[in-house]
Amino acid sequence: MNTDADTASQKVSLTFAQWIRAEASWVVMMFVASRLFVFGMILWSRMTMHRGKFWQPGGLLTVLTQYDGATYVAIVKRGYVSTDPASVAYCFPVFPMLGKLLKIFTADPQLAATLASNISLLGAGLLLNELVRTDFAELKVRRTAVLFLMFSPASAFLSNAYPESTFLMLSIGTLLAATQERWLLACLLGMLTSATRPVGVLIVLPLLVEFLSQAFRDRRSIRAAVDRRFLLLALVPCGALLFMLYGYLRFHHPFLPAHNSL
Hints:
262 residues; mainly alpha; 13 helices; disordered N terminus
């Protein structure tokens, strides 16, 4: 005979299975289809387009880790080691740290950095689906939002070894947690967002608006709304500030990371 705990577990499993079928499966399908299209176009262009002076030999990973991506790959491989501090100081740490974590499993810094971007893009799609669901019950709206994310022209860059996809994932996660009134999680994710790109500190503005809107909805006064949860918003800029402190200790210039990334 099933206990109450077993029954509750079955309900949770069923709900999760329904979510996989109705929500996550579409996101994964759009992610795979869009990446096959993007990667296919890259490989096709390598075979057919004229080789200009900036052309570099190599395959798909070479294309996905060019320009700033090469700097991030170097950080994944060796850390913030450079004879020219300005060449690495603009690389805020969350994305290369994620790449470094994945390098444990791949042993290839190029592949690890590229995986970090693409896993983040998939995560951003899943979180976007949930964020849209907070305001729109229609499945079509959520699927359209994910479709536009995955197939927008700019999404090609979200597979490169750049921090944009990680920044997008963390930003959406921050807003989703805030709408669910999980303020500690929201502010911790906001802190990671500001440690991914310096403009991430601006995520505190929509968080503030959401906090005040919830206070207004609950008919709390401004004085009553300014409680301990409000003080959590101070965590958001700490990610950027900590990296600036590292910039001072490592490069003897506290504003070098922020200056070189803008």
